[in-house]
Every structure is written in structure tokens, then in C-alpha cells.
Specification:
With about 375 residues, the chain is of the alpha/beta class. Helix content is about 35%, strand content about 20%.
Length: about 375
């Protein structure tokens, strides 16, 4: 037997357990809190963030966050050995499985990447990218398109805001004009509030000699659709509200449809292409893509997601206002033969700042099969 120093007594086994209890309680509280945070983010992405902007929304969201995470942390701390601990563990397991599924879905729906981006890199030492606008150029081949390329420029989510210099918006419109587009599409969210209408009237103008077509977004409807419509029409843009227009571009018939759903007129039928060789649909949100793909849309241009607006390096966005979460947050996707382009947009909504998330405009060149400079998937 090993001699013990004078006065030393081995602590009982239950004392050792009590010494470890705070650590166990902390781990349990963290587990409950992590599960509650994941559930809150799912609710925020798919439900709460889509509510119309209001003071109540600004109060409810942080209140729900505090209640869910606070009550979860308290429960985990008080009941570290409760059988209920399997609940948050199961939630985290299901969330992890969902993230794995998301990776495979994004790969399945992935289209081509941009063949040119100016500028491209995000500097990790400069997280604020609010006005670091990027131009992404894509190229897609289409079997029915013949002759010279059709160039489309997409500008979306302007969110005219007095904190943004007017020169910033003007520079973007100049860049869009320098691309010499045939068609310019504006896919909604021109403002966040009616206070920005005067600024919007100074920003909006037709881009070059191109056909300029627009649809409204959710913030336009929430702030007041009629005043926004008036500014858009006065600026010289063609506004489509659940309607279509036939265009002759480079000698070929192109059908362009504006689709405001779910904020505008609801449940409108997507028109057939008729004799058009290309059907282009403008839908502010990419959430409509499966319905539009079923209607044989060739190209769908969307915004709304802001690419998350605040992104974590190497992880991506945390909050994306979509029923599909981060699935169609940004870029080029192909769904049942329909090409979906989701631009980040050039503005920012509440808060009016971007973190590790550059604003952008898209330039999409539609070329004949075999006539492109890159080998891309066909729609």
C-alpha cells in the first residue's frame, strides 16, 4: 500500500462527479443551444425573413432568437442527464444529413461557372464588400439559337439607399452599357423603402441601345408597388407584370415573360413559347424555378437571395431568403433543362452592408450549339 501524506483523504466517488458536473452541464447547454440555433435559422430562412418588413418583424425575429436559444441553453444546463438530450442530438444529426444532401443537390443542379469575372477575389483582410461590384460573364449554348450571340445583362436588387453614393450606381450602369448588351433585365427590388424613390429616379435609365425589361420584387411590393412602377416607366424601362412580350433580336424571335409570383398577381399560367426560339423568364425569386422549368423556360433570371449578403469564408451564407435554403443562393444552375441565373445584386437590404459577399451583375451570352468559346452544358 502506498503511503499518503499526513492529513490526505481520497474524495468519495460522488465528489469527483460533482467536480465534473459544471463541465457536463456546459456541454449539455451547448448541445441544446446548437440544435435550437439550427432550428431558428431554418425558421428564419424559410418563413420569417419572407414576412413583409415592419417594426413588428424587427422585434419578433430577435425575440424568437432569444427565446429559443435561451430556453434551450437553460434546459441543457438544468437537465444534463435527461433522456431529452437525445432530441437535440437527433436534430443536429438531421441538420448534418441535410447539409450533405445539399452538397449533392448543388452538384446535380450545377451549371457552368463564369468564364470571366472582373474583379474576382475577395480579400480576407477586407470583409466589407458593400460596393465591390463584380462582373460575371457566362456563356450558354442553345440548340435552337442560330447566328450571332445574344448578350443579356442582368441587374438586380438595386435597393436604392442614401448611404450608397450615387456614383456607385452610375458606374455599374456604365459598366453594363460597355458590355453592348442586346437585352437588359432588371429582376426586382429597386428600393427598400419609399424614402429612396427620388434616388431611384436618379439611378434608373435604359442601358445603351438594348431592350430594357423589368419586374418587381418583394420589397417593391412591400414598400408600395404603384410609386415604384411610375418611376420605372418614367425611366424608360419596360415593366412586365405577369405578362409577356415578343422581341425580335438579331433576326430571331425571343419571348420574355415577367413573373412576380408570389408577391404580384397569383397563379398566372406561364405562356407557351409559340414560335419563339428562346423563352426568357424574369422571376425575382429562384423559388419558382421548378414550376418555370416545367413550363419549358429556357432561361430564368432571378435575384432576391443577395448571395446571402453576409457570408462566412469557406462556409458560405448563413441566411438565405428561400424555401430551398442555400440551394440556389448564387450562380448558374440547370434544372430539367432550364438555365437558372441567380445574381447577387448590386445593393443590400437591412442592414445595408455586405460582408465577404460582393455585389455583382451577370453578363450571359447565348450562343449556337458548338459556337461558344467554352464547352458548356446544353439546355
Amino acid at each position: 500500500m502506498v503511503a499518503r501524506p499526513w492529513g490526505f483523504k481520497s474524495p468519495p466517488e460522488h465528489h469527483l462527479f460533482l467536480m465534473d458536473l459544471p463541465i457536463i452541464q456546459l456541454c449539455s447547454a451547448l448541445l441544446y443551444t446548437a440544435a435550437a440555433l439550427c432550428l431558428f435559422l431554418m425558421l428564419l430562412n424559410r418563413v420569417m425573413i419572407i414576412w413583409p418588413d415592419s417594426k413588428a418583424k424587427g422585434m419578433i425575429i430577435p425575440a424568437v432568437f432569444l427565446i429559443t436559444t435561451g430556453s434551450a441553453a437553460t434546459t441543457g444546463f438544468i437537465l444534463p442527464w435527461s433522456p431529452w438530450i437525445y432530441g437535440p442530438a437527433l436534430v443536429l444529426l438531421l441538420i448534418a444529413a441535410g447539409e450533405v444532401r445539399l452538397v449533392f443537390l448543388r452538384r446535380a443542379y450545377a451549371g457552368s461557372g463564369p468564364i470571366n469575372s472582373k474583379p474576382h477575389a475577395v480579400n480576407l483582410t477586407s470583409p466589407v464588400t458593400t460596393t465591390d461590384c463584380v462582373t460575371h460573364r457566362y456563356e450558354m449554348e442553345h440548340m435552337a439559337w442560330q447566328g450571332e450571340r445574344l448578350r443579356v445583362v442582368q441587374i438586380t436588387d438595386i435597393h436604392a439607399h442614401p448611404d450608397f453614393p450615387l456614383e456607385y450606381y452610375q458606374r455599374i450602369f456604365d459598366i453594363a452599357g460597355q458590355a453592348n448588351p442586346d437585352l437588359v433585365v432588371f429582376t426586382g427590388d429597386f428600393i427598400t423603402s419609399l424614402d429612396s424613390l427620388d434616388m431611384l429616379s436618379q439611378i434608373l435609365r435604359p442601358v445603351g441601345k438594348a431592350v430594357n425589361i423589368a419586374v418587381l420584387g418583394n420589397h417593391d411590393y412591400w414598400a408600395g408597388a404603384d410609386p415604384v412602377r411610375q418611376v420605372i416607366k418614367k425611366s424608360g424601362l419596360k415593366l412586365l407584370t405577369e405578362e409577356s412580350i415578343n422581341l425580335s433580336i438579331r433576326g430571331q424571335n425571343v419571348l420574355v415573360t415577367g413573373h412576380d409570383y408570389p408577391w404580384g398577381l397569383r397563379n398566372r399560367t406561364i405562356p407557351p413559347r409559340g414560335d419563339a426560339v428562346l423563352h426568357v423568364i424574369l422571376s425575382h425569386t429562384p423559388d419558382n424555378i421548378f414550376r418555370l422549368a416545367a413550363a419549358a423556360a429556357d432561361i430564368v433570371f432571378s435575384g432576391h437571395c443577395h448571395a446571402g449578403q453576409i457570408r462566412i469564408p469557406f462556409l458560405g451564407p448563413i441566411v438565405v431568403p428561400s424555401i430551398y435554403g442555400r440551394l440556389f443562393d448564387h450562380g448558374h444552375f440547370i434544372i430539367n433543362g432550364s438555365h437558372l441565373f441567380v445574381a447577387s445584386g448590386i445593393g443590400a437590404s437591412l442592414p445595408p452592408v455586405r460582408i465577404y459577399c460582393q455585389p455583382d451583375i451577370f453578363i450571359v451570352d447565348v450562343v449556337a450549339k458548338g459556337g461558344g468559346s467554352a464547352s458548356l452544358r446544353n439546355g
